Amino acid sequence: MHHVSSSLLAIASLVTFARSSLGLAIPDTAPTDTYTSTQPGTGYIEDPRGWKFSGGMLTVPRSRIAATSVGQLAFFAGGLLENGTYTDTVDIYNKQTNKWSVAHLSSGRSSIGAGSIAGRYAIFAGGLDDSFKPMSIVDVFDAETSKWSTIDLRTPRGSPQIINLGSTTAIVGGLSGDLQYLSNAVDYVDAGLDITNATLQLRYPQFGVAISDKAGGVGLFTAGYQNNDPGNRFNDFEASNQTTVFSITSNSSASFVSDQKFPYPRWGAGGAAANGVFAVGGGHVFGDTSTGSQTTVVDRVDIYSAATGQWSGRPLELSVPRDYPLVQAVGDYIVFVSGTDQSKDFDILDTRSGAFVDNLNHKPALYTLRSDAAATTIDNCMFIVAGGLVYQGRNATASVEMFNACK
């Protein structure tokens, strides 16, 4: 077990799942005022070597950005500026028009949970203010009306995790700001923006990885770390094997059960799902602290099947170890990138075959290595990486890299 102070873990937790500007077009500064499409994607290019690259720039360099998409729009909200302050800026990319616009959150903050609800709303939940105080505010963008509004979490939290179950979205856990430190709160938000609350039934409070398969109405909250001594000023944090499975019941309400143990507990993993296949990859483990804390970044990928309700006994391997990787679903693929200083290449898992695609030609690959960046996918076929830290974490960047797999 590893005894770490709450203040140190608060800083460590702000690192998001996850480096020179490309000199590309600056986004428009006019606010977004149109919603272009709610239609599903038209398919994607099967061969990743044929995915088309383009670039852009955020309005301001920053890290710890909250990213999500709804319809044809991708959102990059809030984050940490190079001067150490938080921003309320929301950069919005419209895939249909290939243009950028800018909006603003109700307040500047970082460590925001970002997601979507029912294919209509983009949400930016909770976060930490400049004094590291957890917030309850949820900024909501309605893609049908292009209007912003706010609702409130029942429990203020920094870094809440978002699980999109289709008609309902679960806002799970996060940093509580008290001696419990990690929150077990769950806020369900439905398509009418009504909120109900629940409490995770876990032995220990957990800060985990949230993964959504909205098409299947299933989600996971797993891995990460847990607090073995909640309420103590100096909490006892340890990699967690707890797994909670969220699902939509026959009467369209959401429920969860905590019964599946994560097979290889570790910190800093990332995950995504496609076709009912949930992949959790990368992260790090600690060695024997009696001889000095030794951190080992791992290349392991664990697979959970929604069909069987079980973790696979045969893990896969990334091409390189990755800590806090960016992970997104693109069509039938699950893409792992960043999280390492060793490679710009993508690791691309084909959920149909259960194997990684060969990437011997280094395509696709990042142009700029970065950490603490944001990623989202539009229309299930355009993968976007934005912002983050470059040059071994010394500078924030505004560069955006877009990999278009859309036909």
Structural features:
407 residues; mainly beta; Neuraminidase; 5-stranded antiparallel beta sheet; globular
Q: Point out poorly predicted stretches.
A: 1-41
- Estimate percent helicity: under 10%
Q: What is the annotated CATH architecture?
A: 6 Propeller
- Main sheet overview: 6 strands, antiparallel
What structural category do the secondary elements indicate? mainly beta
**Overall body shape:** globular
For this structure, the CATH topology is Neuraminidase
- What does the radius of gyration come to? 19 Å
Distance between the termini: 49 Å
Mean of residue pLDDT?
87
What is the strand content? 35-45%
Helix count equals 1
Instruction: Give the CATH level 1 class.
Output: Mainly Beta
- Strands, total number: 35
User: What is the CATH superfamily label?
Assistant: Kelch-type beta propeller
Describe this structure in words.
By secondary structure, this protein is mostly beta strands. The chain has one domain: Kelch-type beta propeller (Neuraminidase, 6 Propeller), CATH 2.120.10. The protein contains one helix and 35 strands. The strands form nine sheets. Strands 1, 15, 16, 17, 18 and 19 form a six-stranded antiparallel β-sheet that branches. Strands 20, 21, 24, 25 and 26 form a five-stranded antiparallel β-sheet that branches. It has a four-stranded antiparallel β-sheet with strand order 2-35-32-31, with no helix packed on it. The longest helix has 8 residues, at 6-13. The chain is globular and about 50 Å long. The termini are far apart.
